[in-house]
Structures are given as C-alpha cells and as structure tokens.
Amino acid sequence: MRAKKLQDEYFMKLAINLAKKGLGCVNPNPPVGAVIVKDGEIIGKGYHKRYGGRHAEREALLDAKRKGHSTLGATLYVTLEPCDHYGKTPPCTDAIIESGIKRVVIGTLDPNPVSGNGLEKLKKNGIDVEIGILEKDVKELTKFFLKYITTGLPYVTLKYAATLDGMIADEDGNSKWITTELRKEVHRLRKTHSAILVGANTVIKDDPLLNVRFESSKTQLKNPKVVVLDKEGVTLNNPSFNIFRPEFSREVFVFTNTAKTNSTLALDHVRILNETEPTKVLQILGKMGVDSVLVEGGASIFSQFLQFSDEIYAFYATKTFGVGKSVFQNLSRKIEHSDINFSITSVKVSKSKRELMVVMKRCSP
Ligand code: AOF
Ligand code: ZN
Questions:
Q1: Ligand 1 centroid to 219 CA: how many Å?
Q2: How far is the centre of ligand 2, averaged over its atoms, from the C-alpha of 32 (Å)?
C-alpha cells in the first residue's frame, strides 16, 4: 500500500516537472504534465506546450505510440483532471478510453465548468481513478489557472527589491540594482506571468525593458504583456520609452484617465484603455485573457495592489539607503490593519549571503 503511494507520488512528481516546461507558454490555459507507466516502466511522456495546442494526455499517448508501446492496461499520471469537452482540442477522456489505459492518477480536479466531468466519464468506462496525489504541489503549479478560471481575475504577484531599511529607491529615485544576484528569479517570475504591471513613474524614472532575459538562454523567449497605470497619460507623450519597443513582440496596455486614444502613439501593439481603478483594471485584464499579473512597482502601485495580491516576492539586499522611497507609499491604515494576511512559504539566500528572497502567500480567509 505504502509502496504504491510512493510510486504514485514519484510518477506524479515527474508529471509536475514536465508540466513546468510549459509555464509561461500556455496561459491562460493550465500547465499540465502526463506520464504513462506500464509494468513499472515509463512508456510515454507529454506536456501542454503552447496555448491551443495538444493537451498533455494526448501528447503522452502519442509519445507512447511513436515509441511503439502498447498502452493497454497502463496507468496514466496526469496533473489535472482530463477534459471531457470539445474546445480547441477534442476530449482527452475519449483518447484515454480508446487507448485501453486501466488506471488514471490525477493531481487535482479541473474547476473549469466547460471542461466537463472527466472523472465520472473515466469511471463509467471501467477505469480506476485516483485523485489528489501530490495535490498541494499540483495546485501550486496550477495556481494561476485555478484562480483565473474560478474568478475571472488574474493571479496577482507583487515583486519588489528593497534595502534593509525598506527602501525601493534612493533619495534621487534611483532603484536599479538594489539586488543583483537573484536576478534569475525575477526573470523566472516574468517568464511565467502573462503581464507585468508598473506605474508611469517607474517608466519615466527607470525606462525599464520589462522583458525576459536569462544569461544562459540563447532562444528567443516569449515576453509577457506590459501594463502601465498612467492616470495622466504622461508615458503616451514619448513613444521612445523602452516598453514601447516593437521588437519585444508583445502587447502594451496603457490604462489612463486622459482622453488620449490609440492614435496618440500610432503604435499597433499599444492599446490605451480608459480606467485606472485597480479592481476594474484587473477585471478588464481578466476579460482580455490575462491570467496572471506581476506587479513591479513603484511604491504607489504596490500600495494600490497589496490588497489584491495573492503572493509577494520580496527581495532584500543587506545595504541601507537611509533616506529614500519606502516600499509602500501612502498605505492607508485601513489596509495596514485589515485582515490581509501573508505567510512565508519560502526563503532563499544568495550565494554571497548578501541578498535574500522571501516568498509570501496570502492566507486563505
Ligand atoms: C490545456 N492543456 O493539457 C489540459 C487542459 O480549449 P482547449 O481544448 O485547449 O481546452 C482547454 C481546457 O481543457 C482547460 O481550460 C482545462 O480545463 C482543460 N485541460 N487544458 O490547455 C492540457 N489537460
Ligand atoms: Zn484535455
């Protein structure tokens, strides 16, 4: 019994790792991984590679077929409940039933109402189904999708780099390179999110690229959309800001209160939207298919989005500014003392031990 559980967890872990390869490429669909095992041996592997593409289950079945394996009597490990609907792809349940697989081990149920009841369909067809293997890890992997599909709102991650004395910028407003060693973590965050959100001041002061950069990667990475909250529409006066550069092949949304329109910038990939209320901005982004937003500042933006954030990545450097801009600007007492609760889920110390990454997650109410 225990050996079986350990074996199930082992293969589910492999399915999770496969699913991770799709992170940042499949949004707003879920990253999903699948492994087919027969007589203790892996005969097929697959994951959801890109939005609208073949589902993980079908990828794994195809892999087994290509390698000449029979899936008759095999076990399928899949991170998410198989779908039972015609969407951009046909139902995975049908492919599983046809394949002769006799047992399906699922990480977590699919709350997507359109994907049907895959669990019941499999059971009805005489397949043994087990649910909830490594569920906590699978839910972590699938967190954007699980929130987005049930609320229509994007998952919100706040990310900031601060000094020991809690400053995100010095006296002159310079904020670049407070932390440097853990930069890879920042780019990993950027890669997985559908959009990066910043305030107009950040664009004006730092002129950031807000793209995904990994020193090791030679391939062109998909860049998330850029969202700028710009009440006065000041960024729209300058199309030469880095965020507007067309070579990043991404959409840029500027949320503003001004009456400016798309023709202001005359850039095809930039959309101007007349809204700046954080709740409304998130709703609009959700409607546009954005399942996750990485909020990168500055201080006023952090204050406005703290109450809507699901997770915080706080990077700290062991230096001080003395005077400067603190992480949260004009945070109202109401927010400060309300029931917004975060608990620390992980901590990482940099190689030189001079930098620290603290990950915090909102506690469920
Ligand atoms: C995926 N990849 O590997 C699995 C998914 O429009 P479709 O046909 O791509 O269906 C999308 C839904 O299918 C998705 O929201 C989820 O509920 C379910 N499972 N989706 O993109 C996969 N297994
Ligand atoms: Zn499917």
A1: 26
A2: 9
